[in-house]
């Protein structure tokens, strides 16, 4: 699966993904008003607003990007109606030729992880039929429970040609409370990186592994260390833009071949119309603002590669 993502990155010349993480506050008033008039101020009304918002952004950006990353929590907050829209979003993005990275951060004891892996990446047997659940190409995985919790995902990656990104050094301010702690002179994120390499060796796809790592753009010196530790594991890089990560900080996430990382931006793209830089588009043309933000981000990243 990672080879398919690389192919799309090379085709679009855009090593980035759009984070489809919609809050109601990001959605233009005319969309929310319309869905509330039809469905009322209900969970269904809110979820429908999310769907219409997502669809317009995808329609305006799909030819420029290789992938999207919907964060499932933004959909779960609206209950079942939100999860239905999550699935609609996944399916629609795939119809548009995009690879979907489900930001679900799953990880539990072995049998539970196996069920998560089946639901998000694989297939489940229902009577005489074999069916897929969310069927995303990649998901994010929490390694806190160790190999027991990660191996079921790796097994599905190999069997179904899917991929995962393991939380390694995340972009949030308090990540260091655990991830930077030293054990025998090494930071915890380095020990996780060693395991990512080990797990990844069981699911190679060409030069890179289907098992990648989440490495935040907000800690460039640490990403430099992690790039050396994980030369054949792709990085999913959050933290660019709104969280403070700059293009200059990203270069350490990439290998000398210009590959090795895909950079995420969420509200910097989907809520671009709210920024002064893109205010000329206005709320009615938020999709066009998002398109311009994608083009600007791609140029910014490529300027340092």
In short, what is this structure?
Helix content is 46%, strand content 18%. With 305 residues, it is of the alpha/beta class. It has one domain: TIM Barrel (Alpha-Beta Barrel), CATH 3.20.20.
Radius of gyration, in angstroms, nearest whole number: 19 Å
**How many DSSP helices?**
13
**Estimated share of beta-strand residues:** 15-25%
The structural domain count equals 1
> What does the main sheet amount to?
8 strands, parallel, barrel
- Supply the CATH class: Alpha Beta
User: How much helical structure, as a percent, in the residues?
Assistant: 40-55%
The global form is globular
Question: How confident is the prediction overall: mean pLDDT?
Answer: 96
Give unreliable regions as ranges: none
Run of helices and strands:
HEHHEHHEHEEEHEHEEHEEHEHEHH
Q: What do we call the CATH topology?
A: TIM Barrel
Structural class: alpha/beta
């Amino acid at each position: 699966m990672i080879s398919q993502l690389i192919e799309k990155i090379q085709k679009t010349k855009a090593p980035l993904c759009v984070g489809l993480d919609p809050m109601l506050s990001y959605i233009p008033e005319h969309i929310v008003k319309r869905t509330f008039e039809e469905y009322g101020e209900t969970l269904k009304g809110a979820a429908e607003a999310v769907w219409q918002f997502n669809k317009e952004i995808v329609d305006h950006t799909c030819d420029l990007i290789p992938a999207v990353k919907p964060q499932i929590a933004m959909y779960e907050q609206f209950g079942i109606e939100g999860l239905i829209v999550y699935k609609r979003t996944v399916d629609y993005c795939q119809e548009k030729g995009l690879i979907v990275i489900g930001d679900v951060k799953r990880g539990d004891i072995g049998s539970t992880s196996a069920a998560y892996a089946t639901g998000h990446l694989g297939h489940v047997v229902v009577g005489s039929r074999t069916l897929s659940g969310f069927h995303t190409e990649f998901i994010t995985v929490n390694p806190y429970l160790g190999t027991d919790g990660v191996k079921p995902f790796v097994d599905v990656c190999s069997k179904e040609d899917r991929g995962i990104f393991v939380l390694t050094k995340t972009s949030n301010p308090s990540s260091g409370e655990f991830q930077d702690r030293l054990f025998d002179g090494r930071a915890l994120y380095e020990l996780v990186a060693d395991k990512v390499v080990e797990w990844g060796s069981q699911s190679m796809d060409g030069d890179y592994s289907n098992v990648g790592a989440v490495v935040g753009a907000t800690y460039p010196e640490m990403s430099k260390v992690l790039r050396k530790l994980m030369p054949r594991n792709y990085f999913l890089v959050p933290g660019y833009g709104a969280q403070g990560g700059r293009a200059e900080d990203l270069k350490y996430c990439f290998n000398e071949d210009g590959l090795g990382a895909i950079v995420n931006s969420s509200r910097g793209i989907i809520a671009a119309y709210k920024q002064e830089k893109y205010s000329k588009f206005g709320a009615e043309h938020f999709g066009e603002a998002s398109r311009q933000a994608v083009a600007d981000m791609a140029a910014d990243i490529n300027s340092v590669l």
